[in-house]
Amino acid sequence: MNHFGQIAAKLEEYQLDAMLITSHPGELYAVGFQGEGTALITPDETYYFTDSRYMEAAGKQIERASIAMVGGVRSHGSLTREAIERLGIRRLGFEDGDMTVAAYEKWKGQLPGCELIPAGRLLGGLRASKDEDELRCMRQAQRITDLAFAEILNFIKPGVTEREVAARLVYEQLRLGAEKMSFDPIVVTGANGSLPHGHPGDTVISQGCFVTMDFGCVWGNYCSDMTRTVAVGQPTDEMRVVYDTVLKAQLAGIAFARAGVTGRSIDAAARGVIEEAGYGAYFGHSFGHSLGIEIHESPNASSANEEAMPVGAVISAEPGIYIPERFGVRIEDVIVLRQGGCEDITNAPKQLLIL
Ligand code: GLY
Ligand code: MN
Q1: For 132-344, which CATH superfamily applies?
Q2: pTM above 0.90, yes or no
Q3: Is the bond into 319 cis (omega within 30 degrees of 0)?
Q4: In what helix (H) or strand (E) does residue 214 lie, and over which residues does it extend?
Q5: Which of 204, 215, 295, 306 is the most exposed place for a label (fewest CB within 10 A)?
Q6: Ligand 1 in contact with 267 (CB < 6 A)?
Q7: Closest ligand to 197 CA?
Q8: What is the per-residue pLDDT across 289-304, written as a single tens digit (0 to 9) for each?
Q9: CATH 3.40.350.10 is right for the domain spanning 4-128
Q10: ∠ CA(297), CA(33), CA(127), 5° rounding?
Q11: Which atom of ligand 1 has the smallest separation from the CA of 214?
Q12: CA of 10 to the centre of ligand 2 (A)
């Protein structure tokens, strides 16, 4: 899968002669190839420059691009310069959000006579709406995560540590076909559950505790993301109330979520349920973030986002309640926003499971 055509079609709108892609996520989106290269996308052609470690694979996997090898005096900069001089490129877009100041200065020095124009928004706008090929990969990644959750339920019991659960989640997802993890799994139990992004440690699971697991994998270069909280032994009445509140909030957010509404309003639909139940002070983060090639992308379903969400945005739906020193609950699915509603691509059960 590549997105040469989509990027080329946007060049005119951004008044660019070509787009220079230098970041790893940008390369995955534009070229669909896992390497370390530079892509130059013009209205009619794509150029991809990489070194000998990736040349053979690039030649096999990248269709309809002119591929040239970097090495010795033939640097990314000199190959790019040759191409832009030959093609008369004057206005060259670059990924301003993903380039260090030092790299920018270097590129500027290597491309005299060519204006480097910040154009990260061009790629960001395209990446915010997933197409069917991207969704196919995300569904498969999510399916692997769902299956790993089913497996981990057989493994969780008193005496097992957070770290052991995290290791098992990594193993299961790889065994089920994942390319890698989309982030290091979060596994927290008992009082650690109030740490939304706690690191799995040596704390052992005990009777009457919650275990929160936040994990996901990469398949076809695209991420999945899921959180489930399960009880080991009987939870207290208060733990049940908190669990039910988080679930109701998540369902309210999902019921409201659609393209065309602001990220803020989606967040508010879920947050209102938690506030009404009296737990508003314990829900500090936002309802959701976009994900795709990266685990955190834009736009967000957060109180800070006043922009309308685009059709095809894929966001997490992940409210939580975290009571310091006591326990926490988070439930997270991944949803695709469409006109008039959304599709939940997470299928793991989310009623309270008592193991
Ligand atoms: N699941 C990790 C995160 O959303 O930050
Ligand atoms: Mn998430």
Answers
A1: Creatinase/methionine aminopeptidase superfamily (3.90.230.10)
A2: yes
A3: no
A4: strand 209-215
A5: 306
A6: no
A7: 1
A8: 999 999 999 999 999 9
A9: yes
A10: 25
A11: 1
A12: 30
